[in-house]
Amino acid sequence: MSPIPQPSPSHDLPKFHLQILDLSHPGTEKFFSHCGTPLKLLESSASAVLRWLYPLSARSFKTPTSATSLAEQETADNQVPEAHPPSIRSVTLHVRSVDGVAYTQSIPLDSEHREVHFSADYVHGIDSARIGNEIRGVIVHELVHVFQYDGKGTMPGGCIEGIADWVRTTAYFFLWLEKRFDNPWFVPQLNALMAEHEWDNGKWLRELLQGQDIEDLWAKYKRSLGDTDRQSDSTASKPVPTHGC
């Protein structure tokens, strides 16, 4: 992960609920055996997600631009709004038999109540050597989807998933962009912009990238990977995508 933002802001947490219908499912038994206290798992994971997505320093960081005057620089900086987490009143974790790994959804008619559905079948199949970390990793990934913005429903799924993976582990391309543009708050700033604006064919992403084309940057990123990096990347153990995007 990227360095933890300092100072760490304190965010209010929603109410957390747990619903399990089949206590005899072997995945349910493994979940309880390796998750610790479910409430502590959910609270600590949510706190981490909120620290990553909503650091105090994200808006004040001076994003490098081609501005030639202080006034122009301040105008460019002010394009990044001050972001606050969406209003979420409750999150219910369901551990049940379901295809895939996990998914997140709103309760019909009320987006302030969210549900995370975690596959007990998937939990049952996790290797015992990594089950604790994998359970927490999936929970963190799904909670990003609870608290992130999506450009009022217009943000591409790949970018939404990339932000979740940036919080959970390291979305390598996003990390590369942070370093290239000397902006450790690139992802929180993008999230903040998506709270206020629609995707608009990547307009606001290009603003953060100083007008550079994302496809060109992606090509440069791939060229920056040597053969050794590609080989090690292909053999490394990676988290399983939870949404198939």
Automatic annotation (TrEMBL):
Q: Write the lineage as a comma-separated list.
A: Eukaryota, Fungi, Dikarya, Basidiomycota, Pucciniomycotina
Q: Which PANTHER family match?
A: PLANT BASIC SECRETORY PROTEIN (BSP) FAMILY PROTEIN, PTHR33321
Protein name, entry field: BZ3500_MvSof-1268-A1-R1_Chr7-3g09580 protein
Q: Which InterPro entries match?
A: Uncharacterised_BSP
Pfam families for the chain: BSP (PF04450)
**Organism whose genome encodes this protein:** Microbotryum saponariae
